[in-house]
Amino acid sequence: MPTQTFFNLPEEKKKRLIAGAMKEFSAKSLNEASISNIVKNSQISRGSFYQYFEDKKDLYFFLIGKFRYNYRNLMLKSFQEKDGDFHEGYRLFSEKYIKYIMESEKFGFFENMYLHMNYQINQEARVDFKETKSQKLPDGKRIVDVVKRDNLKLTSENELIDILRYILSMLNDTIMEGFWKELTVNETQELFLKRLEWITYGIAVPEEEEVTYD
């Protein structure tokens, strides 16, 4: 996390530092990125950088945290818009999320993040579904409170959290695949929706139906 010194900076200087970091992380992965380039882009001294962040990883995860907050709110609003329906809420969220990631002005940053995704980056980027009501949440709502469980084979809140996490990991894997294979936004959306339907409705075919294979 940034130091309090960073948060005390004038807004213009904070924005300049964030823009300088985004420029570097959009061109290079976390491992390849250089603090020298970040401070040059941001027009600050190297000494000043270490007054604000412990290292480049600290800065990188701070940027991911800002992005995570935005897509957490997008997920909440998607479920609310679909009246808590699990499949329709996740479908709407995934369509908006994939479009945002792959058409964003921050495309280079997201492309590098997904193409170099590892366990630590994945952990930093994922939504914390174990939100507490004491946290400052938009509208005071937790995602798990918005999702309807009436027609889900789940017996507890922890099971709901597990499946939300599992599908989010599947979504991130699909976006990663989209970047690797240079798929379009629509192709990536369709690929994920097919996988979401497998999870939601299962892959077993009713006995009265026949299956044909290509």
Please characterize this protein's 3D structure:
The chain is mainly alpha-helical. The chain folds into 2 domains: 54 residues, Homeodomain-like (Arc Repressor Mutant, subunit A), CATH 1.10.10.60; 137 residues. 66% of the residues lie in helices and 0% in strands. Helix 2 crosses helix 3 and helix 10 packs antiparallel against helix 11. The mean pLDDT is 89.
What is the gist of this entry?
This protein is mainly alpha-helical and 214 residues long. The chain has helices at residues 4-7, 11-27, 35-42, 46-52, 56-81, 86-103, 107-115, 119-125, 143-146, 157-181, 185-201.
**Shape type:** elongated
Q: How many structural domains?
A: 2
How many helices? The count is: 11
Distance between the termini: 52 Å
Category from helices, strands and their pairing: mainly alpha
Name the helix and strand elements from N-terminus to C-terminus, one letter apiece.
HHHHHHHHHHH
Report the uncertain regions.
none
Report the sheet-strand fraction. under 5%
The largest sheet, given as strand count, sense and whether it forms a barrel, is:
none
Radius of gyration: 20 Å
- The helix fraction, in percent, is 55-70%
The count of strands amounts to 0
Mean pLDDT: 89
Fold blueprint:
Layout: H1 4-7, H2 11-27, H3 35-42, H4 46-52, H5 56-81, H6 86-103, H7 107-115, H8 119-125, H9 143-146, H10 157-181, H11 185-201
Helix pairs in contact: 2-3, 2-7, 5-6, 6-11, 10-11
Q: What keyword list fits this structure?
A:
Arc Repressor Mutant, subunit A; 11 helices; 2 domains; 66% helix; 214 residues
